[in-house]
Design a protein that fits this description.
The protein has a domain of 180 residues: 3-Layer(aba) Sandwich (Rossmann fold), CATH 3.40.50.150. 39% of the residues lie in helices and 20% in strands. The protein is built from 9 helices and 8 strands. Strands 1, 2, 3, 4, 5, 6, 7 and 8 form an 8-stranded mixed sheet that branches. Helix 3 links the parallel strand 1 and strand 2.
Amino acid sequence: MLYEDQAERFDARAGLPPGAAERIAETLADVVRLAPGETLLEVGAGTGALSMPLTRRPIRYVGFDRSPAMLAVFRRRLEAAGLRAELHVADGNGRWPAPDGSVSVIFGARALHHLAVAHVVAEARRVARPEGARLAAGRVRRPKDAVPAVMRRELRRRLRRHGYEGAHHEAHTEAVFARLERAGGRRGPSRTAARWTARRSPADALTAWAQKAGLAGLELPPDVKARLLDELRAWAVARFGDPDEPRTHEEFFEIETIFFDPER
């Protein structure tokens, strides 16, 4: 999905709390054994809010995203910090901007689940160094009863009722890892990189979805999207009462890894 229309406000909607990005970068470097001089390719680099600490490490950071506007925010961040990184406008369902056999670590946190599973596996194997590489997938997790989780489950249920199937992060990651595992890949342990407390209301989710071009990674006809949001608001009132009342829950960022040999 392209986020051109919300690049300037993306971090306000989906950003991380202070310090979380630094903890995530440290944990990622540890679990994938990121060594100085290695190349890390990030799929869906976005605004760089998550990735800035990675660009400070003694590695070659290469990031790409479909959205020029999102990368423009990233470039401003780099310039303000006096840092440099290699950023490309590219579609993750096309050829990734890395030569064959050049990448040690592939990282994705907000875009991998929007891409075709077979394509992710094929491109990961193509860009991986001949001696092997590591793929790391990150995501924010919440308790099942947290407001954002409950709202998202209902969104997916209603999408299915309207004949749509949204992107599903966990199922997608499992499918990618399973294919690499069948080719000899070895999974590493999942690691929690950061934890924090968040306060969200049902109205927060509805407002964020209204500002997006689509829903759950899908481009929807405007009338379908409007009808879904109206249904969800009515459901949220019945389920939670006041949809503007925030509720507190814990969130954490989890990283899953797999080590694989591209020639197997």
